[in-house]
Specification:
Elements: H1 2-10, E1 15-17, E2 26-29, E3 38-41, E4 44-48, H2 51-55, E5 61-63, H3 66-71, H4 73-85
Parallel strand pairs: 1-5
Antiparallel strand pairs: 2-4, 3-4
Length: 102
């Protein structure tokens, strides 16, 4: 998923990836993304993403594990916020569950 986020970021598309726990509120992004706090490690950066930004629709694409997202209170709270704010236009679930690299 990291390669997808990097490619989208280079094309100016605001996208993020939440880890399997959804509770760390961290995602990976390209090192060119200087709008968030960054912690560089092995050529990649770890960006803290407030879940409020996700629930308000700041990101065009959000990659997340559906099982993890729906099994967490914060995941269902975000979906409820999306429903009431109408900030989500589409939810797609890939049968592969997770694509690590294209």
């Amino acid at each position: 998923m990291m390669d997808q986020i990097n490619l989208l970021s280079k094309q100016g598309i605001n996208a993020r990836w939440l880890d399997y726990n959804c509770q760390c509120r961290q995602t990976t992004a390209s090192v060119e993304d200087s709008s968030d706090e960054e912690d560089t490690a092995k050529g990649e950066s770890v960006v803290n993403v407030p879940l409020e930004e996700i629930s308000k629709g700041k990101y065009l694409l959000v990659y997340v594990h559906p099982e993890a997202f729906l099994s967490r209170t914060i995941g269902t709270a975000i979906l409820s916020a999306f429903d009431s704010d109408r900030t989500v236009s589409c939810i797609a679930v890939d049968e592969a569950h997770m694509i690590l690299e294209w």
